[in-house]
Amino acid sequence: MNNLQDIISAFQEFLLLPAETEWIEFKKNNYKPDEIGEYISALSNSASLLNKPFGYLVFGVENDTMQVVGTEFKPNEEKIGAQALENWLATLLSPRIDFRIYEFPYNNKNIVVFSIDATTNTPVEFKAEAFIRIGFYKKKLKEHPEKARKIWTKINNYTFEKGIAERGLTDDEVFKLLDYPSYYELTGQSLPKNSSSILEKFIEERLIVSDGRYYNITNLGAILFAKKIEQFDSLSRKALRVIQYHGTNKFNAVKEQIGKKGYANGFGGLISYISGILPTNEEIGHAFRHESSLYPPIAIRELVANCIIHQDFSISGTSPMVEIFENRIEITNPGKPLISTLRFIDHSPESRNETLAKFMRRINICEERGSGIDKVVSICELYQLPAPDFVEGDNFTRVILFAPKKLRQMDKKDKMRAAYQHCCLKYITGELMTNQSLRERFNIDDKNYPIISRMIDEAKSEKLIKDYDPENKSRKYARYIPFWAG
Description:
By secondary structure, the protein is α+β, with helices and mostly antiparallel strands. It has helices at 4-14, 33-49, 85-92, 145-156, 171-177, 180-186, 195-204, 219-225, 263-277, 297-309, 354-362, 372-382, 412-428, 435-442, 449-461; strands spanning 24-27, 54-59, 79-80, 83-84, 93-94, 99-106, 109-117, 125-126, 129-134, 137-140, 164-169, 208-211, 214-218, 241-245, 253-258, 321-324, 328-334, 389-392, 396-402, 465-467, 480-482. It has 4 domains: 4-158, Methyltransferase, Cobalt-precorrin-4 Transmethylase, Domain 2, CATH 3.30.950; 162-231, Arc Repressor Mutant, subunit A (Orthogonal Bundle), CATH 1.10.10; 239-402, Heat Shock Protein 90; 407-482, Arc Repressor Mutant, subunit A. The strands form 6 sheets. It has a 6-stranded mixed beta sheet, covered by helices on one side. A 4-stranded mixed beta sheet has the order 1-2-7-6. The longest helix is centred in the first third of the chain and has 17 residues, at 33-49.
């Protein structure tokens, strides 16, 4: 429901109802700010429970008689202290769901309609209290645990890709919002000559859904092929941010760029932009003198794709981010990893957004399932870079790529990560790590084998690796496997 005319049409349908419902509340002039906030919570939660895309708070209709009487309420003129009413309400709602306020005349009477999105990721609270509609009454959700359980069950079964980013669109409006030529180019298909074929294909791909005479753009369609991601209010904060800093800390940002397009149609430009501002080195090593980038382009591409794919879209107010420092790159996505960071190399990744991931693999933006991180670690070894660091935060996952360092410049953590990741790579390719293979990984002379022996002993003491054959007493022929290997 995205325009005034649709709201007026919906309002006319409301008037045909015998009474208000659990997802529609009628009022005349009772517009106490706290009461409105509580109703937004209740109607959003009830709409979710009843499979309605929106709840509605309508001013100007008597709930007993269903007569249009008009209202004196002017929401756009209301202020709470120095704050406009709409902003005040939004800051006290958690999560910060989308609601829109419409004001229009009907039969020469003033009508106000709050259109409230049904919650999709957690029951909506106002001032830390969740509400629900029970019949015609607003109640605290905690007083009705059976309702809360049903909402949580629905939320747990919700997938981001099936959600709706924009509703009630004509075919022309769909084409204005989605970059349909890029879809055909990226999928290797010829662009049809008629619009109906494009719409049918988009419905088949679940980029849009038909809603009678209108179309709804799904989150999948918008996040992949938006011409301008900012045109989708619920997704505008999901655009990837690229920030370049001067030095090794965040005190001095040189430039910041926020993605404008969808992830699919904008990915090539995004990677080109990142590549263009990365630090360069004309000669990293003898074998790589033809490379100009300080970091492997394949690793950058794969990690940015992973950052996009594996994010938790239910976390509001944050976005995927690439931060470039003089000595490292940090690539961060919202959401804790679903598996231990120590198992990123050998374990097939579990994705919150499998439909999104599947499409990105299909158009060759990322590697086949389970091989992307392996390739990143392997290419970092080939470039003789420090091992990447995989970091789990309270509500984020971060991968750090480091600029070149000599072995003597690496600290203990750097060395332990490198030994463990090398051991994992060897194991998953049917080989075993040895002192020699780890020396080759760091490109150090055979005579320096004691340095690698100490590194291996430290990795064993940290329980990151273990002896392949505990009975073998020969250090020279010792082989090693990851701690998780059988």
